[in-house]
Design goal:
alpha/beta, Rossmann fold, OB fold (Dihydrolipoamide Acetyltransferase, E2P), six-stranded mixed β-sheet, five-stranded parallel β-sheet, 15 helices, 13 strands, elongated
């Protein structure tokens, strides 16, 4: 391992230096036996004699060899010592380790201060600081570990003061937030009360009567023909749009079904066209009836109160409104009224597009959507033929023409 090699090099180098130092101390003894002047002559470069240099070199070689061969033994002992220290540290809580380190530092600082007083003592002055450092370092570790809780309690006022300051700050912020929330709640309550008062005033305020109101239902708005009729000026008075009809249109426009969504948006576009492009006056009323769930029933009741007329193309609403004494303007009836009259025996050219309900029948349509039932027309399915009108049926729901192929 790289660590073993580094340790082996360091141990060898240390013992080589130690050997050189020891042999250098023994150089005067060798100088007595070697009286040759060349060995006792000082070397200018190192300011030592040749004997001392040879001793240092010899001692370094001997110490290095000893260190090289003994380094595996020292490395194994060092590893065991490291494992023992690690085990001892693992058994100690982290608080004790930190306290011991702090105590050791304090003990060494005190030892350094005391050691300066014993340095000048002859013979033992150089060794007393080492002993003092060991003793005070050990005492520092031992005392701080044993008295850790008491020492921590001495400085407990610092975190306590910090916690109290933070708690006071949080309490102040909470009080300010509570005041702001109460103010916002009061403002919201005032706004709701004002809105409720305004809504109540609007609900209780009677809708003016005698203005020739025309009330549009959802079906006639989506149909779209009402916009063209308004453009012609055949409808007089004011169009009254209840809020519950607008809400139903919006609900249809927001539907997940693509067809309903398209119809709802078409109805909103028709209303916008009536308000901006037609010569009709349009008013919106917030009048609503919480005790009624059906939009058509609400529309009929509102028409009764304002003495207005319901504009629709819904056959069922047409019947219900008339039964409750409300005048109805049916768009289908108007459309049928302006269609050209078809006389039995009249000839026309049509395209048979599908089979009829009865066997052998074919069905065709005029440009205005009028359905033509052709007797024995299934044989001409998909072709354009000349037919002769045999009869016509006119209803509030529309017109139906019966014909037969020309011979």
């Amino acid at each position: 391992m790289i660590l073993d090699r580094v340790l082996r090099f360091l141990i060898t180098a240390f013992l080589a230096l130690a050997g050189g130092a020891l042999f250098e101390l023994a150089s005067p003894l060798f100088a007595r036996f070697l009286s040759t002047e060349i060995f006792n002559m000082e070397m200018g470069m190192f300011k030592i004699t040749l004997v001392s240099f040879v001793c240092i070199l010899l001692g370094a070689v001997v110490g290095g060899l000893i260190g090289w061969f003994l380094s595996p033994f020292f490395i194994s002992k060092l590893k065991r010592f490291a494992v023992w220290v690690e085990q001892q540290l693992a058994k100690m809580p982290i608080h004790d380790v930190i306290a011991g380190a702090i105590g050791l530092i304090i003990g060494l600082i005190l030892a350094n201060l005391f050691s300066s007083a014993f340095v000048r003592i002859p013979v033992v002055g150089d060794y007393i600081p080492v002993i003092i450092s060991i003793v005070l370092g050990y005492l520092g570790m031992y005392i701080t570990i044993r008295k850790r809780k008491e020492l921590t309690a001495l400085f407990d006022f610092v975190p306590k003061a910090i916690r109290e300051a933070m708690k006071a700050r949080e309490s102040k912020q909470a009080a300010e937030a509570e005041k702001a929330a109460e103010a916002a709640k009061a403002a919201a309550a005032a706004a709701v009360a004002a809105a409720a008062t305004t809504q109540a005033q609007q609900d209780t305020q009677p809708v003016p009567q005698g203005a020739g109101y025309k009330l549009l239902d959802t079906s006639v708005i989506i149909d779209g023909r009402i916009a063209d009729i308004c453009d012609t000026g055949f409808i007089e008075g004011t169009i009254l749009l209840p809020v519950f009809v607008l809400e139903e249109l919006q609900h249809i426009a927001d539907s997940a079904d693509a067809l309903k969504r398209t119809r709802g948006r078409r109805g909103l576009d028709i209303l916008q066209r009536i308000r901006t492009d037609s010569r009709m006056k349009v008013e919106v009323t917030n009048k609503d009836y919480d005790d009624i769930t059906e939009v058509d029933s609400k529309l009929v009741r509102l028409a009764q109160e304002v003495k207005g007329k319901v504009v629709t193309n819904d056959f069922n609403l047409n019947k219900v409104a008339r039964l409750r004494g409300v005048e109805v303007l049916n768009i289908n009836e108007l459309s049928n009224a302006v269609k050209p009259v078809v006389i039995p025996g009249e000839h026309m050219t049509v395209t048979v597009v599908k089979n009829g309900k009865e066997p052998g029948q074919g069905v065709a349509y005029l440009d205005d959507g009028t359905m033509i039932v052709i007797e024995n027309g299934h044989r001409h399915l998909g072709t354009t033929i000349d037919v002769e009108v045999t009869s016509a049926l006119q209803t509030a729901a529309g017109r139906m023409i019966f014909a037969k192929p020309n011979a």
